[in-house]
Write a structure and sequence with these properties.
This protein is mostly beta strands. Helix content is 0%, strand content 53%. Bound molecules: zinc ion. The site of zinc ion has 8 residues, from loops.
Length: 53
């Protein structure tokens, strides 16, 4: 079965930068390839998930 395709909006709570990424929802987590923000913040992030139809 193919993993669900989703769009993810990631907002950095440190510098306020926003990233819109396409990802896949795997079992229990979201794979977007996102590593960290341009300000090196990798933990204090607000992640919003949208389904793509
Ligand atoms: Zn940032």
């Amino acid at each position: 079965m193919e993993a669900a395709r989703i769009k993810v909006t990631i907002r950095c709570n440190v510098c306020g930068e926003k990233f819109v990424l396409r990802g896949r929802r795997e079992k229990g987590w979201i794979d977007t390839g996102f590593k960290q923000c341009i300000c090196n913040n990798a933990n204090d992030l607000e992640i919003e998930e949208h389904s793509v139809f």
